[in-house]
Amino acid sequence: MAHLLTGVRLALAPPLAAAFARPDLLDPRLVALLLAVALATDYADGVVARRRGTASPAGQLFDHATDCLFVTAGLTGAALAGAVPPALPVLVAVAFGQYVFDSYVVHRRKRLRMSTIGRWNGIGYFVPLVVIAAARLEAVPSVTAMLLLAARLTAYALIASTVVSIADRATAARGARAR
Fold this sequence. Notes:
Blueprint: H1 2-21, H2 28-52, H3 57-80, H4 87-106, H5 116-124, H6 126-137, H7 144-178
């Protein structure tokens, strides 16, 4: 059941990426609804896995890889539309690749090795998508421009925190190899 929930999020990545790239492609209310479904499945899949006793390192990797693909795709679409800097989706993919490499190769673990800043970044990567989707609803037209600015500023903050996270993991990896 948990994998099914994660799979729903994975299936939503392409249409939402296209909708972020081309704002006229889907009705903004549908985009907001699909994004809400993606967020709900992100929350629920881990809860379901733990309650059913099916949580596993492979499931965790599937969940985190799906999160990475989802936000990278959505942020790439948003970057194509000019809503966020193109560096953000690139850095998300680099950070995730480093996370997996660091966990399985450098530290020789059998499961992902999380970090505090990486966890907060993982949550934060959804924020520009939510704010852009809210702005496109134009529920209060006078705040649309402010919401788009907030999404862009959040994206710049995430770029900075992702660079810090990448540097932190690289530094920690050097120390692990030296031991």
